[in-house]
Amino acid sequence: MIIFHGHFYQPARENPYTGEIHIEPSAEPFENWNERVYRECYLPNAYAHRVEDHRVTDIVNNYRYMSFDFGCTLLRWIEKKHPELLEKIREGRGAMASTFNHTILPLDPPEDREIQIAWGIRAFQKFFGRNPKGFWLPELAVDSQTLRLLIKHGIEYIILAPHQVKTKSPYARVFFQEGHLDVFIYHHEVSHGIAFGDLLQDATTLLKKLLSLKQQPLLVAVDGETFGHHKKFGEMALAYLFSRYGDLFTTAEDYHSRHVPTDTTQVVDFTSWSCPHGVERWRDHCGCSTGGLPGWHQRWRKPLREGLEEVRRRIRDRVFNTLDRYLKDSFRATLDFVEVLLGGSKEDFLACHSKRSLSREESRLVFRQLYALLYCHLAFSSDGWFFADISGIETVKNLLYAKKAIDLVEDPEAERILTQYLAEAPGNTERYPNGLMVYQRLVLPQVYTPKDMAVTVALMYLADVEKAEGQIGSWRYKVEGYEPITLYLSSSETEEEYVFHLSFEDLSLERVPDVFLNGVVELWINSYLHSFIEATEDYGSLLERIVKHSSWELLVKQLTLFLQLHLWRSLTQNADPKTVEEILKEAQDLRLNIHAVWLRELFLQYALKKAQETPHLLKEVVRLIKDYNRDAKSWELMVDLWPLQNYVWENRNQFKDKELFELLNLEVPDATL
Question: What are the Glycoside hydrolase family 57 N-terminal domain coordinates in residue numbering (predicted)?
Answer without folding.
Answer: 24-261
